[in-house]
Design a protein that fits this description.
By secondary structure, the protein is an all-alpha fold. The chain has a single domain, classed as Sodium/glucose cotransporter (Up-down Bundle), CATH 1.20.1730. 76% of the residues lie in helices and 1% in strands. The protein has a two-stranded antiparallel ribbon with strand order 1-2. The longest helix is centred in the middle third of the chain and has 53 residues. The protein is globular and about 70 Å long.
């Protein structure tokens, strides 16, 4: 890593902290901190949705997916588009009925506080685990760069004695990323998160554009050779019509499972719903969500094509370099793009692309910290205090809750160091596990009027237990988890209602 690259990267990281400090001046209470006074234009919210959805897992693991497989990941992205349409019809109008701070307040109005708190707790657990993995993935990138710098062994020996250099550098990398993200989120709240997301979107799109250009330049025959070599090897395959429930990335699990996954993650998850609440109304929120789907699809196409280009380059022109990202005889696909960046990019561009990768990571992590803080405050702490404390007090609690959740995710990231070589499946699998239960609960509240709070609680508990069984004892793909979990939750609640005659509005 050269001096110019380091300057570019440090300037970006310091800039995000300064932006957070700038937005901190306008905060007078928790609604300014969490939903910005509903002053954000739709296009900025759209950019924030895209940037948040595009974590380092996307930038690193999706090209790695194409390197190791083909383009069938896009089947899942098609499902994302259908899921967004469902959200605009089922949920967005309800978000703007009343003065919501968290999406789980809707469940509280319909089923009572017990259901609200349980749903919020599921969100908090899922966020902590999934985004801890995302933080780990970003650490992989930074540690890959540090490995090529002189003196790294001495750094590890000084700060983390007893750890071997590779692991030590990864730990230090995770700590550095977490510290910067916590700092600007602590200061600026949701305003800083959204506007930083917009800047980060531009940066990582420019960075990945450079990555695609340089990768293509390293192949003598250009795109024509990529098309010929990759096409012959089947790397452009888009569809897998297999009917097996245990296979990932089939047409059926991608389109159907992806639709249910997005309906859950973008429709019932505080991380995304909080962005809609920052717009001026349901029309702006709908526009932001639908346009974001088109942008997400286009960028996933770009990420996958970068993976195909890298496969052509390494297998055809640099097979000897594959050993650099092979461990125990297996290619670690999450390390391919970072390795290519540090070994092939010119001075300054490495720093820009690295900043792009950081941008993707921090956009998701900062959103996670802010939304987790909002859920903890609005769904647990404020009711506990009877809403009797001052706005200044609640704002201070919100900021320190942000720090607390940052520490939790940092712990998950460090624990994840010994796990998967392709973390995209880990992240999406975690999200799918609990989001199905949450989606089923929201569908109970949206599509029914007869189900009461006790039946809803039974449905949630039954859905969790059922998904534990599916995860533990079956080979079913994680892409079906949301559909299965939401169906189990919905069906169990109906059965409980029928057996116990739980009336709507009965105390939970």
């Amino acid at each position: 890593m050269r001096a110019l690259d380091l300057i570019v990267l440090v300037a970006y990281l310091l800039g995000t902290i300064l932006l957070g400090a700038y937005f901190s001046r306008a905060q007078r209470g928790v609604r300014d901190y969490f939903i910005t006074g509903r002053r954000i234009p739709w296009w900025a919210v759209m950019g924030s949705i895209v940037a948040t959805e595009t974590s380092t897992v996307s930038l690193i693991s999706v090209p790695g997916f194409a390197y190791g497989a083909d383009l069938t990941f896009l089947q899942l992205v098609v499902g994302y588009l259908f899921g967004r349409l469902a959200i605009t019809l089922l949920f967005i109008p309800a978000y703007f009925r009343g003065d919501l701070l968290t999406v789980y307040e809707i469940l509280g109005r319909r089923f009572g506080d017990s259901v609200r708190r349980l749903a919020s707790a599921l969100f908090l657990v899922t966020r902590s685990l999934a985004d801890g993995f995302r933080l780990f993935a970003t650490g992989l990138v930074l540690s890959a760069l540090l490995l090529v710098m002189p003196g790294t062994s001495a750094i590890v020996a000084r700060w983390l004695p007893g750890l071997e250099p590779t692991t030590g550098l990864l730990v230090l990398s995770v700590l550095a990323i977490a510290a910067v993200t916590i700092a600007y989120t602590f200061l600026g709240g949701m305003s800083a998160v959204i506007w930083t997301d917009v800047i980060q979107l531009v940066i990582y799109l420019i960075g990945t554009g450079f990555a695609a250009t340089i990768a293509l330049d390293r192949i003598p025959g250009g795109w024509n050779e990529v098309a010929q070599v990759a096409g012959t090897a089947g790397k452009f395959r888009l569809f897998d019509f297999s009917l097996s429930l245990s296979r990932d990335y089939t047409f059926w699990s991608g389109v159907i499972g992806g639709a249910f996954l997005t309906t859950a993650t973008h429709g019932t998850d505080q991380l995304m719903v909080q962005r809609y609440l920052c717009t001026r109304g349901p029309r702006q929120a709908t526009t932001a969500l639908l346009v974001s789907g088109v942008v997400v699809f286009a960028q996933f196409v770009l990420f996958l094509l970068i993976g195909v280009m890298l496969w052509v380059y390494y297998t055809t022109y640099a097979p000897g370099d594959i050993a650099a990202f092979t461990v125990g005889g297996a290619v670690q696909t999450d390390r391919i793009l970072p390795h290519f960046i540090v070994t092939h990019f010119p001075p300054g561009i490495v720093g820009l692309v690295l900043a792009a990768i950081f941008a993707a990571a921090m956009s998701t992590l900062s959103s996670s910290l802010n939304s987790s803080s909002a859920a903890l405050l609005a769904d647990f702490y404020m009711p506990l205090t009877g809403h009797a404390r001052s706005e200044r007090h609640y704002l201070a609690v919100s900021r320190w809750a942000t720090v607390g959740w940052g520490v939790v995710q940092l712990g998950v990231a460090i624990a994840a160091i010994e796990l998967s070589t392709r973390v995209v499946d880990e992240v999406l699998g975690i999200a799918s596990f609990t989001n199905g239960v949450l989606l089923g609960t929201f569908l109970l509240g949206t599509l029914t009027t007869r189900i009461g709070p006790r039946a809803a609680l039974v449905g949630i508990v039954a859905g969790i237990l059922f998904m534990l069984g599916i995860r533990t004892f079956t080979p079913i793909s994680w892409q079906w988890y949301v559909l299965i979990g939401s169906s189990a939750t919905f069906g169990a609640a109906w059965l409980a209602h029928a057996l116990a005659a739980d009336p709507p509005g009965a105390p939970a």
